[in-house]
C-alpha cells in the first residue's frame, strides 16, 4: 500500500509550522532587524498552507508541474521583497531549505520502512530543491532591479546644471559619456539655457576618465546644439594626458574654446560678459575701518 | 637580430555590450599600472583600447579581447588582441584613413588607435572577421 504522503503532511501541518519556526528563530542568522517574528510566522504559514493545498500524490513526482505555480509565485514574491529589504542570499535560501529539513524530519518519524522512506525523501528533496532554485532566480532578479534603479538614479543625479553667475552655466560631467547620458546632458543643458537666459555654458570634463572619439563626438554635438541656441560653450578640465591623447587621435577641437581648469573657463566667461573680478584695495578697506 | 617577445601573463575578456567597455578599460588600466606605465602612455593605451572595443561592438556585435603583458629585452608592454567574427573590412587602407567612416562617427577610431599605439597590426577577411593587435610599451 502506498503511503499517503500528503495526508501525513496535512495531519502534521501545525507541528511542521511550529518546528520550522523554531528552527528559524533558533538560527544565528535570524534578521530580527529586517523582519519581525510575526511577519516571519505569517510568511511561513502562508507558504506551508499554499504548498499543502497544491501538493497531491500525483504531482509529487513532477516538480515542474503547473500545479505548483501558486507556490512558486509566492516564493518569488517573498524572495523579491527580501532582496529589496537587504537580506543576504544565504538568509533567503535558508528559509526554504529549512522547510525541507522539517518535512524530511516528519517523514522520518512517520514512515518505518526504509526503502519507502528513502524513496519519498528523494521526491521531497527534488521538489523543494526546485523551489530553492526558483527562489534564487527571483532573488537575483530582485537584486538586478535594485541595480537598475540605482543606475537610473545615478544618471539623474550626475547631470546637475549649476548657475555659477548670472548668464553663466556650469555642467560638471563625471563618468563615461555614452549616447544615453549625452542625450540627458544635452536636454538638461538646453532647457536650462532657455530658462535662465544664459549666454555661456561651461562643460567641465575633469571627471571623465577617458576621452575617445565617441566621447569627443558627443561633446562636439552638445557644443553645436548649444551654439544653435545662441549660447557659447566652453570645455574645461582638460588634463595634460587627455590633451596629448586627443592630439594623437586627431580630434579637431580648434573651433571650441577649451580651458584646462574650470577657474580659467570662468575667467574667460567673465571677460566675454565684460565682468571684472578684482581684489579690494587694502588701503581703501583700512580707511573705511578707521576714518581719519 | 630581433629580440624575441616573451609572454608574461595573459587574460581574455569578452566585449558584447556597451556596458562591457568600461570594465574592459579598467582591466587594461590595471595591467598598465602593474608594469608601471606612465600616465600619458596609460591614457593613450586605454583610449586606443576603447576605440577598438567600440569598433568591435559597433561593426561586429562584439568579440574577444586578449590582454597580455609582454617583454622584449628590457622593455615591458601590454599587447591587446581584438578578435571578432563580424563582416570584415572591405578596404583596410581606406579604413585607416582619417575621417573615413561607414558609420556616422568621426572616422578617427582606427587611425587614431594606430597613432596612439606603439605597434599596430590589422588583419581582416570579408565574411570571416577582423583581428587587430596593438602593443604599447611602458616607455614607448
Write up what this structure looks like.
- Chain B: This is Serine/threonine-protein kinase RsbT.
- Chain B: One of its GO terms (molecular function) is kinase activity.
- Chain B: Pfam families: HATPase_c.
- Chain B: Residues 40-140 form the Histidine kinase/HSP90-like ATPase domain.
- The complex is a heterodimer of chains A (292) and B (140).
- Chain A folds into two domains: 5-153, Orthogonal Bundle (Globin-like), CATH 1.10.490; 162-272, Transcription Regulator spoIIAA (2-Layer Sandwich).
- Chain A has helices spanning 5-11, 13-26, 37-54, 69-85, 89-110, 114-157, 179-196, 213-228, 240-249, 262-272, 282-289; strands at residues 162-165, 168-174, 200-207, 232-236, 257-258.
- The model of chain A has no long low-confidence stretch (mean pLDDT 83).
- In chain A, 63% of the residues lie in helices and 9% in strands.
- Chain A is of the alpha/beta class and 292 residues long.
- Chain B is an alpha+beta fold.
- Chain B has one domain: 2-Layer Sandwich (Heat Shock Protein 90).
- Chain B has four helices and five strands; from the N terminus they run E-H-H-E-E-H-H-E-E.
- In chain B, strands 1-2-3-5-4 form a five-stranded antiparallel β-sheet, covered by helices on one side.
- In chain B, helix 2 (39-60) runs antiparallel to helix 4 (109-116).
- Chain B is globular and about 40 Å long.
- The two termini of chain B are 20 Å apart.
- The model of chain B has no long low-confidence stretch (mean pLDDT 89).
- At the A-B interface, helix 8 and helix 9 of A face helix 1, helix 2 and helix 4 of B.
Could you give me the name of the CATH homologous superfamily of chain B? Histidine kinase-like ATPase, C-terminal domain
**H/E series of chain B:** EHHEEHHEE
Tally the helices of chain A.
11
**In the CATH hierarchy, what is the class of chain B?**
Alpha Beta
Terminus-to-terminus distance of chain B: 20 Å
Mean pLDDT score of chain A: 83
Order of helices and strands of chain A: HHHHHHEEHEHEHEHH
Amino acid at each position: 500500500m502506498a503511503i499517503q504522503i500528503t495526508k501525513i503532511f496535512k495531519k502534521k501541518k501545525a507541528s511542521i509550522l511550529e518546528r520550522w519556526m523554531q528552527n528559524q528563530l533558533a538560527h544565528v542568522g535570524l534578521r530580527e532587524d529586517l523582519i519581525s517574528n510575526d511577519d516571519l510566522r505569517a510568511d511561513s504559514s502562508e507558504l506551508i498552507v499554499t504548498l499543502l493545498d497544491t501538493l497531491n500524490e500525483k504531482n509529487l513526482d513532477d516538480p515542474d508541474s503547473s500545479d505548483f505555480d501558486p507556490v512558486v509565485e509566492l516564493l518569488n514574491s517573498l524572495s523579491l521583497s527580501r532582496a529589496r529589504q537587504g537580506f543576504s542570499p544565504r538568509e533567503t535560501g535558508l528559509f526554504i531549505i529549512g522547510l525541507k529539513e522539517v518535512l524530511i524530519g516528519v517523514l522520518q518519524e512517520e514512515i518505518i520502512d526504509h526503502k519507502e522512506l528513502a524513496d519519498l525523501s528523494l521526491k521531497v528533496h527534488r521538489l523543494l530543491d526546485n523551489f530553492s532554485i526558483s527562489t534564487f532566480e527571483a532573488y537575483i532578479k530582485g537584486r538586478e532591479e535594485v541595480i537598475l534603479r540605482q543606475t537610473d538614479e545615478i544618471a539623474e543625479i550626475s547631470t546637475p546644471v549649476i548657475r555659477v553667475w548670472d548668464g553663466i552655466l556650469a555642467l560638471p560631467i563625471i563618468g563615461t559619456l555614452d549616447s544615453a547620458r549625452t542625450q540627458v546632458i544635452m536636454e538638461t543643458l538646453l532647457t536650462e539655457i532657455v530658462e535662465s537666459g544664459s549666454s555661456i555654458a561651461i562643460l567641465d570634463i575633469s571627471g571623465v576618465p577617458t576621452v575617445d572619439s565617441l566621447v569627443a563626438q558627443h561633446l562636439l554635438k552638445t557644443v553645436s546644439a548649444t551654439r544653435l541656441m545662441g549660447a557659447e560653450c566652453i570645455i574645461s578640465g582638460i588634463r595634460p594626458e587627455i590633451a596629448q591623447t586627443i592630439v594623437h587621435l586627431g580630434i579637431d577641437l580648434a573651433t571650441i574654446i577649451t580651458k584646462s581648469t574650470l577657474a580659467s573657463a570662468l575667467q574667460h566667461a567673465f571677460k566675454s560678459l565684460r565682468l571684472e573680478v578684482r581684489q579690494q584695495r587694502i588701503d581703501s578697506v583700512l580707511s573705511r575701518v578707521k576714518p581719519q | 637580430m630581433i629580440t624575441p617577445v616573451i609572454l608574461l601573463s595573459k587574460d581574455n575578456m569578452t566585449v558584447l555590450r556597451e556596458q562591457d567597455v568600461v570594465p574592459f578599460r579598467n582591466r587594461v588600466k590595471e595591467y598598465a599600472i602593474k608594469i608601471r606605465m606612465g600616465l600619458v602612455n596609460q591614457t593613450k593605451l586605454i583610449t586606443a583600447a576603447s576605440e577598438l572595443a567600440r569598433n568591435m561592438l559597433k561593426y561586429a556585435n562584439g568579440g574577444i579581447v586578449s590582454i597580455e603583458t609582454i617583454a622584449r629585452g628590457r622593455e615591458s608592454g601590454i599587447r591587446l588582441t581584438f578578435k571578432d567574427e563580424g563582416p570584415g573590412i572591405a578596404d583596410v587602407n581606406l579604413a585607416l584613413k582619417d575621417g573615413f567612416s561607414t558609420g556616422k562617427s568621426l572616422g578617427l577610431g582606427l587611425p587614431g588607435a594606430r597613432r596612439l599605439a606603439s605597434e599596430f597590426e590589422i588583419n581582416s577577411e570579408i565574411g570571416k572577421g577582423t583581428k587587430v593587435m596593438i602593443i604599447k610599451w611602458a616607455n614607448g
